[in-house]
Automatic annotation (TrEMBL):
It comes from Legionella rubrilucens. It holds the Pfam family Inhibitor_I42. It comes from the Bacteria. Residues 1-18 form the signal peptide. Keywords: Protease inhibitor, Signal, Thiol protease inhibitor. Residues 32-116 form the Proteinase inhibitor I42 chagasin domain. This is Secreted protein. GO terms for molecular function: cysteine-type endopeptidase inhibitor activity.
Amino acid sequence: MKKLIHGILLMLGFGVHAANPTAMTLNVASGEDQFKVTLQANPTTGYQWTVQNYDQTLFKLMSSQYVAPETKLIGAGGQMVFTFAVNEGVALPKSSAMTFRYARPWEPKEGTTQKVIIQFKP
């Protein structure tokens, strides 16, 4: 019984760690006027990605679109693609952070967050 409880607690610990992924880095050429952030998604589970935080003085969210997988399997996940435009006339920093949340709309305090670091390369 102790081994079973220990095993369950160990799995729960891994689950908590997996719910807080590390930051994702996206390299963007300094001259680009748009870029895309692509995140794995499966709306059949009720979960959806939303943008929680980004520097609106630097970027404008142009669109967000779910791209279904090429497979015909029911319930297979696809990708959520967020397209951002770089605002005209702004001096871009070396990097900027964005935060996305993957949650069900009826469970706003649950879910996971994904930090995305946008690095501008010359």
